[in-house]
Amino acid sequence: MEVISTKNLKKEYKGSGFSKERITALKNFSFTVNEGDIFGLLGPNGAGKTTLVKILLGIVYPTEGDASIFGESIKNEKYKTKIGYLPENHKFPNYLTGEQVLHYFGMLSGLSNAQVKSRSDEYLKIVDMEKWKKTKIKKYSKGMMQRLGIAQAMINEPDLIFLDEPTDGVDPIGRKEIRDILIGLKDKGKTIFLNSHLLSEIELICNKVAILNKGELIKEGTIDEITSTGNKHVFTTSDLSDDVINILLNQYFATLHGKNEFIVNSDSAESLNTVIDILRKNNVNILSLTKEKNTLENMFINLIEQQN
Ligand SMILES: Nc1ncnc2c1ncn2[C@@H]1O[C@H](COP(=O)(O)OP(=O)(O)O)[C@@H](O)[C@H]1O
Ligand SMILES: [Mg+2]
To answer: Coil, helix or strand for 2?
Structure first.
């Protein structure tokens, strides 16, 4: 089932100060997120990630286009009872304790006192913050604050949770803890939408990824789909003769590393097999042949660089 879908979203902001130039934060943005996905929106700072989330939450209005959540247009606000949100750089009043923060947001969500109590106990346990619940949050680390933030986003038992840069500024152990919490939520059947400029985070937990740059969607798919183009094949062989080297360079645009190793930048099995035929015909022994998969990082950097 489609949980989020957008059609040709565009967002222009007014320029700041005296500037009359409008800023296009998002253009022609169409995508879908399905039930049970951990969807990662990846892009450099300023790409438009937060703008998209704010549109989906009804915090800012799109200049053009439309979006629907749970099959209904976002103009119909009813969907908001079924979503949770952890904003980027959120700030809770720092004189509150963790438990009081959850109480406050629970009451805002229209829960009864008894519901707030039982859910905050449940979610404090899930995010491993029970022992800190009576401590004022000004004493919390960034990781603890984010874990509490996730509990806050869950207090109304949403089916869809938006997390904007949940691991930014969190140390590696804290990040792992947050990843584990998110995987636990997915296992409970929740759909998670994650914004991040941190590639490793997305790569480790998301089943679907979209790459956004300067307001434009430049790639979308599973991590396998995104990284499946541009694979390399590395051959190690017995000594290559000058004739063979010439063929490899001129016909296959191979990259040579000395006389015994070369790389063919090709995905096609056909060209790979003709390379093997040529080697065998010229009495070259193939010692090994390995496929080097493109990493999401390489792909991301290449795609962003192509655009700049
Ligand atoms: N309220 C606003 N007014 C004017 N420009 C904004 C506003 N919010 C964001 N922008 C601009 O829109 C672009 C996208 O910002 P944002 O959505 O925050 O990107 P990201 O979350 O990917 O870092 C940036 O150029 C940013 O400066
Ligand atoms: Mg942002």
So the answer is: strand
